[in-house]
Structure to design on (711 residues):
């Protein structure tokens, strides 16, 4: 087990990177503590796989260092980093039994058979593979095979970190939630540092204590699941996390006060630090917008019933605003006005939350 | 046009895939088939498309009997879960392909392709090959092909299943708008209750080869005919437990009691099932009439704006779904509050009380 420090990492796949977009990974500085559950979350192309490959040693970063327990491993090959990895698709030996598959990473390191047996039985019980332990892997279902793959990652107790790269891709949607929660439980039982890479918000937020959200090679927020929902650090986080995502609206500042559609909007964050040339936006989640007698005049375009809420598509000054109205509450048909919760409405400058 | 199935049965090698089904889809309506994998949705789609022949019964488009008619002789479009486009043709040629098969004039092809591309937000990509597009754009290309030929019937078999959730969110919003006013009757298969609700229209819930109920989507959701329909139409799964009605009270596990309200108030004393959707079970006490349930938290899940907790209540699994992001301690006791206005009651045979 280990603490992991990413120190001013940058990476480009080009020989001579110039423009910001030449960098697959812009500067990344992260400190992960020992035994934590972490997730790297973002859409495809955001740089999360590059970052994962740098940690595992498959890619050497153009700049910066990576430290395990304070020791610089930037130039160590993968096999000397003492890590375990679980991939998107099962990596197992079809001709071996489930038992031998799980035992393989231990036998490979000449662990004595008594300990091998103990670990294999422990892991197979945790993953509910014990009733198929003597069967050959070849005939098993894709999700059983992926569980074996996970078990092979978990079986060693001496690794610095276990990394999961989109491990639920091959799992049937109806079984996903079980494995999602299983992984969380396993982390609590084994206490090894784990890093989980995914584009799925539910997988990331369910698994991790801390989530790193990435976009265009950049870390846009590092926080707990509560932080990401309650106080998005970037408009991208507000949009990407939550269904539907945060409303992002153009904003004018006049004498230190925020306006949208010529209506003053109370905001939670201070804006003293603004220079005045930034692109300003207001961010407010649909759950924190409500109908009122005064406020921003809006037109109702569509009301969808989600079963638990009514999802209202409203329009004000040419901008779409989603409003989530609890079941049973009425939605005005004409002369509607919108109010934003002042504690959950914030100003963003060039995409970033203004911390004034 | 209206699409009607009359006593349609499909068996394969003696095994029933679809039991005796009679349904009528309204002309130009948006219809959803909702059910888990293996419930018969795809069988029904194939029968409608003519890719499979019913073992018994008949299928009419309007008043034309189409039962034995080949797919290519029907004016039908079908879009699958996997985006199928011609990889060596541009987006323009992909969209144009069904029109060229129909030998339409070049001017008319061009007009229709451009109009459909505009609708699908594909205009800037018309000259690219599908491989240069994102997953969402590829699926929009496949959808554009289905829409462009102005079919009588458009069949969509889990068309969004392979898109990531942000794209799914956008497409669910766009799809009903795309088909509105285009004259086609749409049948859309999905395994996700939330998707059915957002798409609206009418829904047929399916379970083990049977249509359990068919009607307006919101009505099916709020007033399911039976417990099976309520189960099909709930994600996370509906909490279902046996209860006893005693005078003016409902009793669960001998110790948990609440007032019998609504249709159950008039019902005879005896055994019933209660069905409670997870969002009526909250870790916070709301203003409504609530009953406290003390459970042991088994598993929690966070979806971004909602929290789901699976908990054990007297040996049975229950699920709570609440707004916002809550942290629960797995393995610990936790009070949950059941909002009794969300209780649906069912007779021992499954039929809803008051249905």
């Amino acid at each position: 087990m280990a603490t992991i420090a990413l120190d001013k990492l940058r990476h480009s796949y080009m020989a001579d990177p110039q423009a910001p977009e030449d960098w697959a990974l812009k500067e990344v500085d992260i400190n992960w503590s020992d035994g934590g559950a972490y997730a790297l979350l973002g859409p495809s192309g955001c740089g999360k796989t590059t970052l994962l490959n740098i940690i595992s040693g498959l890619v050497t970063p153009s700049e910066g260092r990576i430290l395990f327990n304070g020791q610089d491993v930037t130039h160590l090959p993968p096999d000397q980093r003492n890590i375990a990895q679980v991939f998107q698709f099962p990596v197992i030996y079809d001709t071996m039994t489930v038992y031998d598959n799980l035992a393989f990473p231990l036998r490979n390191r000449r662990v004595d058979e008594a300990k091998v047996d103990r670990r294999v039985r422990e892991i197979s019980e945790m993953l509910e593979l014990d009733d198929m332990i003597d069967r050959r892997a070849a005939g098993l279902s894709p999700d059983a095979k992926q569980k074996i793959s996970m078990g092979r990652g978990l079986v060693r107790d001496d690794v610095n970190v276990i990394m999961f790269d989109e491990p639920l891709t091959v799992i049937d949607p109806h079984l996903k939630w079980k494995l999602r929660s299983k992984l969380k439980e396993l982390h609590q039982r084994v206490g090894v540092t784990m890093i989980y890479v995914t584009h799925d918000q539910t997988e990331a937020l369910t698994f991790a204590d801390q989530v790193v959200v990435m976009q265009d090679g950049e870390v846009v927020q590092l926080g707990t699941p509560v932080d990401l929902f309650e106080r998005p650090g970037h408009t991208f986080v507000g949009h990407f996390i939550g269904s539907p995502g945060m409303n992002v609206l153009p904003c004018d500042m006049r004498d230190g006060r925020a306006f949208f559609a010529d209506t003053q909007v109370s905001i939670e964050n201070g804006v003293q630090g603004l220079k005045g040339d930034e692109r300003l936006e207001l961010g407010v989640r649909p759950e924190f917008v409500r109908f009122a007698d005064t406020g921003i005049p809006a037109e109702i375009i569509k009301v969808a019933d989600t079963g638990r809420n009514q999802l209202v598509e409203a329009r004000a000054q040419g901008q779409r605003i989603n409003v989530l109205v609890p079941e049973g509450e009425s939605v005005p048909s004409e002369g509607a006005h919108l109010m934003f919760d002042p504690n959950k409405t914030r100003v963003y400058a060039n995409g970033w939350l203004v911390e004034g | 046009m209206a699409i009607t199935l009359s006593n349609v049965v499909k068996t394969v090698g003696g095994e029933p895939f679809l039991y005796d089904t009679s349904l009528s889809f309204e002309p130009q309506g948006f219809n959803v088939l909702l059910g888990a994998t293996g419930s018969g949705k795809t069988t029904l789609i194939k029968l409608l498309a003519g890719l499979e022949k019913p073992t018994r019964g008949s299928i009419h488009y309007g008043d034309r009997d189409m039962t034995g008619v080949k797919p290519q002789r029907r004016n039908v479009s079908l879009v699958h879960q996997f985006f199928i486009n011609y990889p060596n043709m541009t987006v323009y040629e992909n969209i144009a392909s069904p029109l060229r098969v129909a030998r339409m004039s070049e001017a008319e092809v061009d007009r229709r392709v451009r109009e459909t591309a505009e609708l699908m937000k594909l205009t800037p990509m018309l000259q690219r090959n599908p491989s240069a597009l994102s997953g969402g754009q590829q699926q929009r290309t496949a959808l554009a092909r289905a829409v462009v030929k102005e079919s009588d019937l458009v069949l969509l078999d889990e068309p969004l299943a392979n898109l990531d959730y942000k794209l799914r969110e956008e497409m669910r919003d766009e799809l009903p708008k795309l088909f509105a006013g285009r004259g086609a009757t749409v049948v859309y298969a999905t395994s996700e209750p939330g998707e059915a609700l957002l798409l609206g229209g009418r829904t047929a819930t399916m379970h083990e080869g049977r249509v359990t109920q068919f009607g307006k989507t919101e009505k099916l959701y709020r007033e399911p005919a039976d417990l099976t329909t309520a189960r099909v139409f709930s994600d996370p799964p509906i909490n279902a437990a046996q209860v006893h009605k005693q005078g003016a009270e409902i009793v669960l596990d001998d110790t948990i009691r609440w007032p019998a309200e609504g249709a159950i108030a008039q019902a005879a004393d005896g055994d019933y099932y209660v069905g409670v959707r997870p969002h009526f079970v909250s870790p916070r006490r709301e203003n409504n009439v609530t009953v406290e349930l003390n459970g042991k938290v088994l598993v929690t899940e966070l979806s971004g704006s909602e929290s789901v907790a699976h908990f054990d209540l007297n040996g049975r699994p229950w699920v709570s779904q609440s707004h916002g992001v809550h942290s629960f301690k797995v393995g610990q006791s936790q009070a949950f509050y059941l909002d009794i206005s969300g209780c649906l009651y069912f007779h021992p045979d499954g039929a809803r009380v008051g249905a």
Notes: Residues 57 and 79 of chain A are 8 Å apart (CA to CA).
